[in-house]
Specification:
Elements lengths: L7 H5 L19 H15 L4 E6 L5 H13 L5 E6 L8 H11 L9 H14 L4 E6 L8 H11 L10 E6 L3 H6 L2 H4 L2 E7 L4 H14 L8 E2 L1 H11 L3 H18 L3 E2 L1 H11 L4 H12 L19 H7 L4 H16 L15
Helix pairs in contact: 4-5, 4-6, 9-10, 10-11, 10-12, 10-13, 11-12
């Protein structure tokens, strides 16, 4: 076991937590899909094309993309004027939504009426027409009423003879597709729709390595072996958010054991002890891990790779003596410390 006076960050040699729960743009790992999506978003913003929609299930990186875009606009305030509605309330009327839009741009109309608010917004955007005005809405699937989308259509129609006065960038769950299709007047004005899918197995490995290096880990820092990464990917089903959560909790387990080698046993224990009980999902995971591993995917062009050398490179090639020893230590600790209730029996191929 590690020295109780040593913190987790010190033990692993981190400057900060690599798997924090917040969507820190500094820890943004860009897959090819994320880079392509961000490219299209910037094109929509810079060319003032109007409306862009990003769709994806929970944990596919929508909020991280939003923050990346927002960070970019806020570094150039002389060029960009951006407002954000973080999570609209489903019960909002169209006027409530308009109030929120106006408020986020810092406006306080004297008369509380639809006409007064629209005039105030139009005059404000007109006065800022030398900058690129953009409204970003997260959790846009909460806007499921026709009146809400009609209001956004009216706002986006504000324009000069040269260009739109405001862009709308909307991030939503896949369920919002049905709402969009039921509002053709709005859907037909969408310039770009991008759907984010789950991480590939290779992306899961790259995300983990990227975050470890970003947090300051050296070659002697924590290492997730290939079986551990495979278990994480299979359970997370390609969700970046779930991947980060499992990695964060797996680091804590490894820290309790005093090992920097994180194998499948640690990951399986982490999943069993720190996630909601889901026998069906755990059975699928066990069956998947029992099957032969798929061949490694070839490196894709422009994929961010983390370079390793020496001992770290040898560890990347597959299970090592250190990995096996780490798993043995885990099992030994579980049996030697039953009173602490830290562990249960962990089998290589089942939870």
């Amino acid at each position: 076991m590690q020295n109780d006076s040593m913190t987790l960050l010190e033990f692993f040699g981190f400057v900060e937590q690599p798997f924090a729960a917040t969507a820190d743009p500094a820890y943004y790992y860009a897959t090819n899909a994320h880079r392509e999506c961000l490219y299209h978003l910037w094109n929509t913003v810079d060319e003032r094309h109007g409306i862009a929609v990003v769709l994806g299930n929970y944990g596919t990186g929508k909020t991280t993309l939003l923050r990346k875009l927002l960070t970019g606009t806020r570094t150039q305030p002389e060029r960009y004027n951006t407002a954000v509605i973080a999570s609209p309330i489903p019960s909002w009327t169209s006027f409530s939504l308009l109030e929120s839009v106006v408020t986020q741009f810092g406006l306080r109309p004297e008369t509380r009426s639809f006409v007064a608010y629209m005039e105030s917004l139009y005059n404000y955007l007109l006065s800022k027409r030398d900058r690129i005005n953009t409204l970003i809405i997260d959790d846009a699937q909460n806007l499921n009423k026709r009146g809400q989308l009609e209001l956004l259509r009216l706002v986006q129609n504000l324009e000069t003879s040269q260009h739109k006065l405001i862009n709308l960038i909307l991030f939503a769950q896949l369920e919002w597709i049905h709402v969009l299709r039921a509002a053709p007047n709005f859907e037909q004005r969408v310039n770009m729709t991008y759907t984010l899918g789950p991480l590939s197995a290779r992306d899961t490995r790259n995300l983990i390595d990227f975050r470890l290096r970003r947090a300051g880990a050296s070659e002697q820092g924590p290492h997730f072996d290939d079986d551990a990464v495979r278990a994480i990917h299979e359970y997370a089903e390609g969700s970046a958010r779930v991947t980060v959560t499992i990695c964060r909790n797996a680091l804590l387990t490894a820290y309790q054991l005093g090992t920097r080698q994180i194998g499948k046993a640690i990951v399986l224990h982490t999943i069993q002890k720190t996630t909601l009980p889901d026998p069906e999902r755990q059975s699928r995971l066990a069956a998947s891990l029992a099957a032969p591993a798929a061949p490694r995917e070839p490196a894709a062009e422009n994929v961010v790779e983390v370079e390793f050398s020496g001992e770290a490179a040898a560890r990347r090639r597959g299970p090592s003596v250190q990995n096996v020893r780490a798993n043995q230590l885990l099992m030994k600790a579980a049996r030697a410390n039953p009173d602490k209730a830290l562990f249960v029996d962990i089998h290589d191929n089942a939870l």
